[in-house]
Design a protein that fits this description.
Blueprint lengths: L12 E8 L5 E3 L4 E9 L6 E8 L3 H4 L7 E7 L9 E12 L10 E8 L1 H7 L3 E8 L1 H11 L8 E6 L6 E8 L1 H9 L14 E6 L2 E6 H5 L3 E5 L12 H9 L4 E6 L3 H6 L4 E8 L4 E8 H7 L35 E5 L8 H4 L10 H14 L3 E8 L9 E4 L20 E13 L3 E9 L13 H9 L5
Parallel strand pairs: 9-12, 13-19, 15-17
Antiparallel strand pairs: 1-2, 1-5, 3-4, 3-20, 4-7, 5-6, 6-7, 8-10, 11-12, 14-18, 15-16, 18-21, 19-20, 20-21
Helix pairs in contact: 3-4
Length: 468
Amino acid sequence: MSEDLNTTEKAYTLSELSLTSSNGKKVDIFPQLVELSIFEDIYSPTLSGKITMADSVDLFAEMPISGFEFLTVTLSKPGNWSFFVLEKTFRIYKMEMEEINQATASAQAYTLYFCSEENLVSASKKISKSYKGKKISDMIKDIVENYLETSENKFFPENIEQTYGVFDIVVPYMSPLNAITWLSNRAVSSGSQTSSANYLFYEDSFGYNFRSIEKLFQKETKAKYRFKPKNVSTAPDFQNTVEEDVYTVIRYDFINIFDVLKNINNGMFSSQLFAFDILRQKVTKQEFNYNTLFGSTKHIEGQGTTNRPAPFHNEYKDRTGKSITENYLSVLKMYPTTREHDTDSSITQYQPGIKPNLVENWLLSRISQLSQLNYFKLKLVVPGNTYLSVGNIIEFDVPLATLRSPGEPASNPYHSGRFLITAIRHKIDIKSYEMIIEATRDCVSYNYQNATRNDQDIETQSSSFGLG
């Protein structure tokens, strides 16, 4: 295994990297390691990854490797982070051969793809079950425990955030993970500190989670990153210099900055729902306004920092006199509703105990809240650190591109602050451990200045400069 030497910020300890065949044969494959990647994603229900190996002992034929093996990884960081261990057993499911170099024909290179065992269990099963008078959080707990049969050390009850309301739902022959995703789309938080409809089911390096994004936003900051020259430190000793470098960003890129047209079309700013009641032959109209939602929900800023959450727009009004949050016809949705069926005696006498599906509470809000998470997004390449996982909050000051005089702010005031980690790629080779982090936020840190003109004003002003 790798040596436990805390010599650089990219050092790591790989206590175990082994393949176990279905007949129980176990082989240490660290000597064959070229690159190992483990993927965490808040939008994916399970972990996955791939490992590239340079094999000169012909494990492919001797073991043999057939797609029914298990990969065991025990990864940690030396020094003060050694208590945070990524310890997982994955299932191999796919293999790809790499191009063989004629000069080294005695060795073959191939890539093994792996995922959590629950992924394969889910693909092999279907659920056909009726849940009556149950919370969605309880349904998901039942699926994880009794259909995926997930072990207790990967599924903790405290990682299941309770949902609002009880429902009568029939799961119609769906795989367990697809059923969980389907149910998550309909979940509304029951907590007094949240009013969100953006639940996600995902696996991080410590286990499975069913949480709302709004609840994640209220977590404390777990790490603070900065972008600065390497090995420039105020720390008094070498050990602290290494610790500083662990939280130094190697490079960063903008994945998304903004796309107003795209987010008009997907319903982030405004939309409209026609909820049709089949039994009562009634259609109700509901209008969604981004500003109304923004003012009633928690955001990533304003949680333990002096920054105050501000929306992604500045009340600009178009030539019709409407702001972007008032164009409700930009996105139209239609969905059946059972609203107030539980209080209508003409219905309850034939179907006592009927439950409303609360579509008015979750459909349009979820569309907007998930779109907000893709409005401004960063990719950070940082030294590897098993202390962090998806769902954690980090802080990062986005640097300004221009040079500043000493004492002047050097970071972007609107986009610096707290970020939610939505994806991590743990990338390990024989020399180093890096993480590629995707991080997002649902607001800016300061209000944009309100617009004083609309597009008609600007068009009129521009035309006055034309040649007459």
